[in-house]
């Protein structure tokens, strides 16, 4: 190097000598700088291509139900799933020599540099697609020399470690098209309500022109500017031989089917359900919510869109006359715990408070099945009798507790457990709770998945501790499935942008946490609320909806001054419905007290359409016998009414009912007796008969 400089140092013309030496030094420094940059780029390795994308939710059937994003819409679409005309239009307008250069178009760079120097500013752009992609991924949009240097480093690294198709795919998925839409898929959906693989030549040319000035070339902001830009791109494509003159002619005259406002602002399916999914994602991925929203995850959920639609329609239909009353409803698969449908309130736009998972309300008598499971495992049977009458309970602390039945009705005689559950007798429940102990009931409820804090008091039998709809439905699911511990969940599988599975729900075999025999017996007792053979001092609590049901369900309702519940199940679906007011306003109208039952019945019937009728599977060691519901004795053919009840073998009654059917035999004999000679009655005798 020194010899070369000395050689040219002998040039007599001073100006020429320093020009030559300066040029040599500049070339040398440039070579050293280039080698240094390439070396540093090589050792830095490939830059990450991760970029924010929308997280998308899918239903059971694989249909999109919603998306998570902040102020920006982002999707990732493989290059082969993008319309070829869009790719050609983009290359034509943004970087014609993309596949020939190594990240930099030096002709355009020199031209832009000359423009910048003459204007003493950085106004002229010469960025290739690779440079733009580097800027989109890693840098800000500010125009400074520092940012330009960093951009060059990232550009070299991208070209060094990734092929051209990967770079082009990344660019098309990150470039900004305006209106909060990043990437061609988001833009295609926003402007034309279609996927990027379905774009026509005319639509492609229009979209390819937008990134140059998203606000200036948006057809929603200035249609004429957008069309003019489209025509320029089509002309350039024709000039390069990518399309024919006829293609250009037809494309420029094609009527663009731009999306309508209502198509651009679609209401998500099951928004309350999606909020639960987001919380579950947070726990599974251990990431903050904003990272998840823009993580590009594909989330496959448990939601059944048909059942969601049915639940929403039933709520709207049954509650349309009540303006301010609220609802929380949840349907679950009892075998897995997967949530099939969820409604957390009447109007998500007005209130995002989820009354299924966030609200805790007193469940009233719908809590009693947990009590009666404890009773069955402590020696009770369906025919265990207790007196139903007003009772004062003197507690250990000296206080007196006096519960009452609905509307002050009592049997004033012993009733069976089967009838007590069907009629929802409070005296029977409190007596049982005090016999077993409230602490025992608290422990039993935990086995059903009730995690809320419960007060171990006598009134707990009547559901006076607050719980969530999710907890109650989970508890009833464990009855429906024979005692297997399931918990509510919404996510079956999660994949990343490229479809790699990063999470999949596992449902390992679990041993029952409840006694299968007694759990089955409890489920059969819970069918009694719809069976009017158990009517006693009042009708069974499900009588008002029994005529709407076409198959066997088990369930229990619950009512407090401020809450109305109905929870019930088949072997396939468990559904819980709560209705009430957010401010704990008393429910006073008779019609409003029926909403929960009406919604539940309508949903269960429609949701089961097409599902074969199934019976609850009876475990070994359980037998069925006909019982006289009133006395709890074995029924004979002369006892009416009768009900089939289930017992652990050896615990069934041994005595028979003594009541007989009304004797109609003599009357029938008289009516069918041979016609004997009868004395004709006179006038006065006939008149006497008429008067009597």
Automatic annotation (TrEMBL):
- Stretches assigned to the Penicillin-binding protein transpeptidase domain: 328-576
Could you list this entry's UniProt keywords, alphabetically sorted.
Carboxypeptidase, Cell membrane, Cell shape, Cell wall biogenesis/degradation, Glycosyltransferase, Hydrolase, Membrane, Multifunctional enzyme, Peptidoglycan synthesis, Protease, Transferase, Transmembrane, Transmembrane helix
Residues annotated as domain Glycosyl transferase family: 62-237
Localization in the cell? Cell membrane
Quick check: keyword Methyltransferase in the entry?
no
SUPFAM superfamilies recorded for this chain? beta-lactamase/transpeptidase-like, Lysozyme-like
Its family remark reads: In the N-terminal section; belongs to the glycosyltransferase 51 family.
Q: Name one GO biological process term.
A: regulation of cell shape
The portions of this protein that span the membrane are 20-44
Protein name (record): PBP1A family penicillin-binding protein
GO CC, sorted alphabetically, is: outer membrane-bounded periplasmic space; plasma membrane
Major location category of this protein: membrane
Against NCBIfam families, the record matches this protein to: PBP_1a_fam (TIGR02074)
UniProt biased composition (Basic and acidic residues): 660-673, 682-692
Q: Which PANTHER family match?
A: BINDING PROTEIN TRANSPEPTIDASE, PUTATIVE-RELATED (PTHR32282), PENICILLIN-BINDING PROTEIN 1B (PTHR32282:SF11)
Q: Which organism is it from?
A: Terrihalobacillus insolitus
**Disordered as annotated region, ranges:** 655-692
- Stored Gene3D superfamilies: Biosynthetic peptidoglycan transglycosylase-like, DD-peptidase/beta-lactamase superfamily
Q: What is the lineage of its organism?
A: Bacteria, Bacillati, Bacillota, Bacilli, Bacillales
Catalytic activity reported: Preferential cleavage: (Ac)2-L-Lys-D-Ala-|-D-Ala. Also transpeptidation of peptidyl-alanyl moieties that are N-acyl substituents of D-alanine; [GlcNAc-(1->4)-Mur2Ac(oyl-L-Ala-gamma-D-Glu-L-Lys-D-Ala-D-Ala)](n)-di-trans,octa-cis-undecaprenyl diphosphate + beta-D-GlcNAc-(1->4)-Mur2Ac(oyl-L-Ala-gamma-D-Glu-L-Lys-D-Ala-D-Ala)-di-trans,octa-cis-undecaprenyl diphosphate = [GlcNAc-(1->4)-Mur2Ac(oyl-L-Ala-gamma-D-Glu-L-Lys-D-Ala-D-Ala)](n+1)-di-trans,octa-cis-undecaprenyl diphosphate + di-trans,octa-cis-undecaprenyl diphosphate + H(+)
State a single Gene Ontology molecular function.
penicillin binding
């Amino acid at each position: 190097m020194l010899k070369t400089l000395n050689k040219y140092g002998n040039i007599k013309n001073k100006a020429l000598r320093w020009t030559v030496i300066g040029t040599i030094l500049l070339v040398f420094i440039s070579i050293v700088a280039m080698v240094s940059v390439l070396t540093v780029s090589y050792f830095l390795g490939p830059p990450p291509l991760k970029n924010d994308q929308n997280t998308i939710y899918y239903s059971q059937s694989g249909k999109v139900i919603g998306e998570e994003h902040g102020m920006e819409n982002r999707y990732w679409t493989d290059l082969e799933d993008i319309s070829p005309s869009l790719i050609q239009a983009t290359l034509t307008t943004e970087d014609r020599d993309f596949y020939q250069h190594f990240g930099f178009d030096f002709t355009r760079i020199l031209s832009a540099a000359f423009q910048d120097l003459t204007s003493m500013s950085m106004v002229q752009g010469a960025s290739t697609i690779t440079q733009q992609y580097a800027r989109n991924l890693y840098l800000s949009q500010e125009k400074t020399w520092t940012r330009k240097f960093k951009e060059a480093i990232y550009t070299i690294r991208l070209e060094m470690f990734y092929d051209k198709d990967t770079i082009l795919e990344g660019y098309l998925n990150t470039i900004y098209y305006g209106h909060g839409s990043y990437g061609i898929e988001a833009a295609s959906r926003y402007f034309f309500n279609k996927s990027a693989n379905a774009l026509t030549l005319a639509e492609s040319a229009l979209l390819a022109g937008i990134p140059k000035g998203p606000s200036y070339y948006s057809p929603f902001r200035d249609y004429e500017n957008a069309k003019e830009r489209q025509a320029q791109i089509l002309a350039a494509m024709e000039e390069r031989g990518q399309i024919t003159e006829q293609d250009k002619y037809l494309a420029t005259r094609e009527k663009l089917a731009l999306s309508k406002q209502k198509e651009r602002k679609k209401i998500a399916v099951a928004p309350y359900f999606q909020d639960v999914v987001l919380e579950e994602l947070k726990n599974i991925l251990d990431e903050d919510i904003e990272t998840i929203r823009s993580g590009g995850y594909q989330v496959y959920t448990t939601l059944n869109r048909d059942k969601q639609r049915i639940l929403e329609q039933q709520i709207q239909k049954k509650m349309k006359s009540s303006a301010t009353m609220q609802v929380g409803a949840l349907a679950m698969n009892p075998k897995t715990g997967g949530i099939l449908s969820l409604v957390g309130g009447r109007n998500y736009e007005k209130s995002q408070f989820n009354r299924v998972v966030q609200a805790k309300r007193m469940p009233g008598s719908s809590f009693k099945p947990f009590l009666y499971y404890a009773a069955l495992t402590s020696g009770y049977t369906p025919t265990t009798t207790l007196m139903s009458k007003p009772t004062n309970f003197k507690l250990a602390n000296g206080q007196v507790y006096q519960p009452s039945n609905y509307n002050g009705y009592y049997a004033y005689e012993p009733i069976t457990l089967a009838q007590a559950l069907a009629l929802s007798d409070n005296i029977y429940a409190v007596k049982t709770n005090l016999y077993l102990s409230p602490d025992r009931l608290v422990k039993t409820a935990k086995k059903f998945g009730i995690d809320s804090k419960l007060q171990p008091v006598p009134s707990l039998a009547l559901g006076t501790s607050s719980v969530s709809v999710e907890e109650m439905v989970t508890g009833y699911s464990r009855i429906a499935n024979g005692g297997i511990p399931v918990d509510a969940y919404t996510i079956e599988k999660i994949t990343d942008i490229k479809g790699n599975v990063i999470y999949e729900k596992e449902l390992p075999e679990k041993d029952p946490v409840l006694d299968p025999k007694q759990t089955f017996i409890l489920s059969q007792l819970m069918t009694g609320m719809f069976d009017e053979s158990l009517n006693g001092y009042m009708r069974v609590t499900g009588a008002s909806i029994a005529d709407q049901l076409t198959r066997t369900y088990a369930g229990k309702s619950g009512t407090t001054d401020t809450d109305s519940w109905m929870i019930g199940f088949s072997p396939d679906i468990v559904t819980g419905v709560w209705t009430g007011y957010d401010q704990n306003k008393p429910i006073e109208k008779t019609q409003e007290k029926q909403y929960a039952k009406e919604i539940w019945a309508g949903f269960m019937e429609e949701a089961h359409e097409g599902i074969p009728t199934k019976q609850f599977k009876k475990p070994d060691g359980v037998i069925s016998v006909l019982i006289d519901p009133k006395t709890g004795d074995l029924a004979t053919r002369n006892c009416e009414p009768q009900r089939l009840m289930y017992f652990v073998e050896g615990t069934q009654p041994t005595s028979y009912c003594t009541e007989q059917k009304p004797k109609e035999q003599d009357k029938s004999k008289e009516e069918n007796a041979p016609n004997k000679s009868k004395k004709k009655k006179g006038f006065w005798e006939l008149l006497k008969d008429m008067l009597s």
